[in-house]
Amino acid sequence: MPTPETIADVPQDFETLKAVILERKAQLPKRLKQVAAYSLDNPDEIAFGTAASIATSADVQPSTLVRFAQHFGFEGFSSLQQIFRARLRERTPGYEERLKALRQNDHSRLESGSIFNGFVAAAHRSLDNIATSVDPEAFERAVGILAKANTIYLIAKRRSYPISSYMAYAFGKLKVKYQHVGTAAGIDEDMLAMATKEDAAFAVSFSPYASESASQARLLANRKVPVVSLTDSAFSPLAESSRVWFELVEADHAGFRSLSASMAFAMALTVAIAEKRRRLAEGE
């Protein structure tokens, strides 16, 4: 059993709790790690769900939730839930009211307009969040790694693919050498075999993670090719393979997640890389 926390050590807010979980995640037993991943990826469900419903969704026993809470110094799971509920109360005022207004639209008359408003609202939330979720120093390190690479390998599948496609287009216009992994010819393995320590990779994957993207990022990392990644959880398989990784959770409307913040991030990263390469070439 872990040594109980003192009252002073018990996390008092969501950000502190998140930092402590990430700090200890490597030492957590398998089931507690499972709960940790679920709680950080689904904080709203932790706030509103019952112990039984959360345990079912996280694929653990309800008693595991209690053990998880006590591991971090809480008396029980309900005490831990208060941290997640406080996080919701600290959100931008009016958010729930705006969603309620959208749900109450006259769908027989304004169905398409309501859907439009919902996606615009989700895009706004995503863009609001990105300003505080991206560490400027980490962004600078990522730009430095990718700007110094001879070739940048772009790795993304499924929902993430539009991000790498945009970057491939922009790199071409900006005269930055790249390889877009994911060819119709099925030669990804041959393409990745050409990567060296002088190159770098940028990988993108969101839950449910593309196993092929995770495998390709791991392959490059094992060969000492630096990897930078964009994902949506500290427990993403991309995080463990990356020199620098960014956690970005997009807002959704009716279960459909936006790519607004991810595309903004990709645009900023692409242009910053090109500008850094220009300065390096000119000896600045």
From TrEMBL:
Listed GO biological process terms: carbohydrate derivative metabolic process
UniProt cross-references to Pfam families, sorted A to Z: HTH_6, SIS
PROSITE patterns: HTH_RPIR, SIS
Domain SIS: 142-282
Secreted listed as a keyword: no
Domain HTH rpiR-type: 15-91
CDD domains: SIS_RpiR
Any GO molecular function: DNA-binding transcription factor activity
Keywords carried by this UniProt record: DNA-binding, Transcription, Transcription regulation
PANTHER family (alphabetical): GLUCOKINASE, TRANSCRIPTIONAL REGULATOR
Protein name: SIS domain-containing protein
Species classification: Bacteria, Pseudomonadati, Pseudomonadota, Alphaproteobacteria, Hyphomicrobiales
